[in-house]
Amino acid sequence: MKSLIVNTTLCLVLLTSCKHEEKKPLEAYIAPVVTNNGTDITFKDTTEMRGFTTEKLLAGGLSATVTAPAKVAATVLPSDTGAAQNIILFDDTELAANYTQLLQHQANIKQETAVNVKQKEIEYQRTQDLKLHGAATGQDVLNAKSSLSMEQTNLANEKSALIEHETKLKAAGFDMSVLKKAQSGVAYIICDVAENQVGNVKPGATCTLTFNSFPGETFNGKIDGIADAVDNATRMIKVRIKIANTDFRFKAGMFANVSFGIKESNTMSVNKFSLITVQGKSYVFVKKSPAVFERRPVVTSVQIGDRVTVLSGLNSGDEVATGGVMQLKGLSFGY
Description:
Number of helices: 5
Number of strands: 15
Shape: elongated
Structural class: alpha+beta
Helix content: 25-40%
């Protein structure tokens, strides 16, 4: 009974003390002040900026490794029949057909130019001379001219067909001039590199390759060429890599991974998450004082790893927002 009285008394004391506690009023939120057409964002105090992170920029070198999936698109083999040109085995049967037809059209053009057209030109000139001496009629001249025109048309058609097949090969990352000079014991690897990275991939530069077929092994290759077109859907560009294949280990169709080491020296860069793009223009937010951010337009170049190089708009020592950037964007542009 005594214990019950003590407990009851304690509860009454607690309830009484709770009644006398004064509730602290919630501090009203004061929205940041946005001025100068959204350029400047001023917070009430630094406590409202806890969700924002920044980094101080310093000019310096950048390096990264870009890795891209690839495939052995073609291998060059010697001809067992002693043909003048080596055999090129393509992974893509359509490319193989384009290459074969291109070779045929080249042979036809050579025949048309050196024999057919030339012969008809001689016959036409001879007929004109005969007419001048009364040994041929005007109709003979017209017939000779018609025969020449027909051969010239055939030559033009062959050249048009040649361009069609050459275009398809180029779109796949191959140049006819390269294939024509290809030596036996060489393999060509094709990979896709993002448009914003291709500026760092230079023809003649070395790269490393690994193959699913040869786990644990690394091979060296050389960038042999870069395609002239960007894929509209993926924004990727095909890069051709040449690798020695004297033992013919690499087969057309094998999968690989290519690693490019890329470097930029003495350049300004920002974290990719610092950048925003509005109506085709790029911006970052620079911390001007403990409670003020300034929207700054910048001109960017290539992306290297998680960094984007900046050509203009920033200076060494600028403090750029890396976290809370979307909130700053909403305040600055009003959404």
